[in-house]
């Protein structure tokens, strides 16, 4: 949270998944992420609850309006906040965002399978730090030298120190965040509320993000057209760390345009999709000749995309159901009671 001196509009920054550089118990965070998954099941969509928490925070601070910036899961919360109380926003910035649900599935390739396996087996801050670095940044960025050391070595020490100071994330916290991302959804009515509310939106994303895929961010920007501008930068999931100057410049332009009351039609920008990639790693708009063979190829191409998305959806439903049944059995498990001597 930050209020610039002389500015009428404060800035509310909502961080995402509890990570090394944004510890779960960071006292500077706007609010804590709940870890009680039983309460979560009773209360429903968690991103909606956290959006209401953010709104209550604005009320508590006496901020009538704010520029709202959200990253990753924090961007989901920011979207919900914009839909719940659009009159409280000066502008909205969504960094490395997706639409939730099956869009939370990362790009499936050898690197991601390896990262997932190592993430689930990570039991120490050192092991978790190695996984987080590869998931958050591009290899090019990590291998750059800063003085006599690579950035990978410097960040590794910072990550280990941060994780060690807060402790490893609990299983309930992990399950709660998974549930929040999986159940997050922006309805057409909510998207229409954001589009028609008059504030400007920036969707900022790293082209090499392996956690939140670029094509999902593009789709979100399209749904928010004409209020949204899509900004694509070279970088990974923490593109704000890899490209701080470019991200700051994009945010400054958003704030400046909001202050000048720029029309959404003059602000909106969506890049061409020719360089986009679907989950399969295939170009979004394959350049082929318009003949019968090409039409068949395009049809197969779209069919494969739908099959994979359906596969990811059912896998997600199966995993969520399996976890739910395991928790039910854990609760129903009988407890042995020692016989009384009397």
Write up this protein.
It is a single chain. The protein has 342 residues and is an alpha/beta fold. The protein is 51% helix and 10% strand. The chain is built from 14 helices and seven strands. The chain has helices at 37-43, 46-61, 73-84, 110-121, 125-136, 139-142, 151-166, 171-183, 188-195, 214-223, 239-242, 244-259, 264-267, 292-332, and strands at 10-14, 66-71, 89-95, 145-146, 149-150, 200-206, 228-233. The strands form two sheets. It has a five-stranded parallel sheet with strand order 1-2-3-6-7, sandwiched between helices. The longest helix is centred in the last third of the chain and has 41 residues, at 292-332. The chain is globular and about 60 Å long.
Count of DSSP H/I helices: 14
- Cα-to-Cα separation, first versus last residue: 62 Å
Q: How do the strands line up in the largest sheet?
A: 1-2-3-6-7
Poorly predicted segments: 19-44, 274-290
Count the E strands.
Answer: 7
Question: H/E element string?
Answer: EHHEHEHHHEEHHHEHEHHHH
Largest sheet: 5 strands, parallel
Overall shape: it is globular
What is the structural class?
alpha/beta
Give the DSSP E fraction (strand runs of 2 or more residues).
5-15%
The helix fraction, in percent, is 40-55%
